[in-house]
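Archive record
______________

***
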Amino acid sequence: MVGLTAGKFHDVAAYLAAHPGLPYVAISNPTGTREGRVRSLMRAIVRTRAELIVGVNIVDTYEAVDRLRSCGKLPEARCAMSVHGIQPDYFEDVRRDSRRLDGVVCTNRLAVELALGAGIASERVGYAQYGVPLSSAQLRVEKGRGGGVLRLAYVGRIETWQKRVLDLPSICEGLVERGVPFELFIAGGGPDERHLRELLQTHTSAGRIRWLGNVPAGEMQERVYSQVDVLLNLSLWETGPIVIWEAMSNGVAVVSSRYVGSGLESALVHMENCLLFDVGNSKQAAAMIESLGSASARERLVKAGHELLASRYNVEASVVAWEQAMNQILAQPVIAPKASGGFQPSGRLDSWLGVRFAESTRRLLRLRYHHVEPGGEWPHSYGNTRFDDDGFWSRASRMDQRKDNCGL
């Protein structure tokens, strides 16, 4: 059962259109407050009578389950956090809630180590990798598909801090300097798209850039993967990324940064199933792209990439891993409730009446706080650690060094 948060910035109908056929319960917050979010989650959870509630970037979930256990509504329910990002604020949440989480499920080996470091017992931390459909029909490596032009793809959020999209212009310049004829497909959207378009204007005018916008998942194979030779990943960190596994499934060679999260995962191996360059090193990236100009140069990477998916990152293997992780959590004793005692007042009504009575009053009078962005409406995290916290990234980078240093 999927609990879908609803609101101005959380469109349940749009989600169901993209993922049809899911059993679901919609979770609406009529007041817009944090207390309102917790109460709405509590009502939805009670309706489902779930044995295990897994939070996916809805941080108020853990307070909601804790209250239900404290008041005896669902005394045996387990509560787990799923971690889909290597972000310092997420692991601050893990540490803060470590005494009331029955488990944590991570999609990346580094994230597992970070969860352990945040105070979760090893028997309560599960690993469940991402998986994509495995397409044997796409193993072929096209010869002359681009008429002598190397076709590249960037797929994902157009954003600088994590995805490092502003490395694309210097990579393009490097390819031009090397005399590599190329065409770059850019599929996605995001906050830095306008700036990126400005920086790539010369290449766009020269016909080297093809802007595709946001491509629905069902159209990715036809509009992107079947059209390109190489997928380019530039990220600082990833827990997958799923886009690499999709490219490998569709017979596309991968050139990727050695992002934080790729080390302990030990999936990407330089010169075996992909080519790797140091994060931010555009010259290295251009040189590696140039080396894949022929179909024969890409063929070995494509074959090894497909073998990696067949063994680890396919849908079936992912489902088995998720089931094992959840059963592992269910096998542990229920964590004793650690009720917080309520939140700090966030307005005059809270100060006058107390947070919980003020919430009941708001509902009775149909008073509502109107949020201006998705993260306020349903927050992903209450962590205060900045994304660019040097201490966190220094620790994470050290932890991510694979033991045999293979490919690095």
Notes: Residues 126 and 324 are 8 Å apart (CA to CA). Residues 136-312 form a domain with the Rossmann fold fold (CATH 3.40.50.2000).
